[in-house]
Amino acid sequence: MIVLDYALISFGAILIVAGVVGSLLPVIPGPPLSYGGLLLLQFSSKNPFSTTFLVTYALLTILVLILDYLIPIYGTKRLEGSKYGVRGSTAGMVLGLIFFFPIGIIIGPMIGAFSGEMISGKTTKQAFKSAIGSFLGFLAGASIKFILCISMAFYFITTLL
After folding, report:
1. HSE (side-chain half, CA atoms, 13 Å) at 115
2. Per 3-state DSSP, what percentage of the chain is helix, strand, and coil (rounded to 5)?
3. Sign of the four-CA dihedral 82, 84, 86, 89
4. Which segments of 44-111 are extended strands (E)?
5. How many domains does the chain have?
6. What Cα–Cα distance (Å) separates residue 122 from each residue in 80, 126, 137?
7. pLDDT by residue for the chain (161 residues), tens digit each?
8. Containing domain of residue 21, as a range?
9. Which residues contact 129 (CB under 8 A, 6 or more apart)?
10. What pTM value is reported for the model?
């Protein structure tokens, strides 16, 4: 049984680290990976978490995943972005991820939102404002994911100590 515990804890730690890293990179689903790390620790003989704790973190993980998609759209729209800016932001994220990883994940949505707004006929100033909204939305989403993953890492580590 001890060998199984070491395996579960080791793989759980890998998932926790991958989750924290993934909270900053859109290509890696950070919160679900960190939650998986907590579940692996739960399946060890330590069995440290209550059902309420696990359900709460499962719901938080789902909520954060939903918000991660909605916040950049809200940021773009809040700063007067149109559907062209939102679509451009999404296309920019994908292209930035493929061609300019990892920096493209950050600047791709901004360039995409700016380009989308320019195509829709907005002025440079309006397009830039929309691009800033996209960037602020990305930062807000990444921050929320990072905080959630760090809190899961905290519980994982303190349980082992």
Report:
1. 14
2. 85, 0, 15
3. negative
4. none
5. 1
6. 10, 6, 20
7. 588 999 999 999 999 999 999 998 777 899 999 999 999 999 998 889 999 999 999 999 999 998 887 887 777 778 777 888 878 887 887 888 788 877 787 788 888 889 998 998 889 988 888 888 877 887 888 899 999 999 999 999 999 98
8. 2-160
9. 79, 80, 81
10. 0.81
Write the CB contacts of 17 (distance below 8 Å, at least 6 apart in sequence).
153
Please check whether residue 32 is in contact with residue 19, taking contact to mean a CB–CB distance below 8 angstroms. Answer: yes
Cα dihedral sign for 74, 78, 79, 82? positive
With CA atoms as reference, report the closest residue to 92 among 124, 121, 114. Answer: 114
Q: What single-letter amino acid sits at 112?
A: G
The DSSP-derived string for 92-105 is HHHHHHHHSTTTHH
State the amino acid at position 87 in one-letter form.
Answer: R
Q: How many residues does the chain have?
A: 161
Does residue 32 have a cis peptide bond before it, meaning omega lies within 30 degrees of 0? no
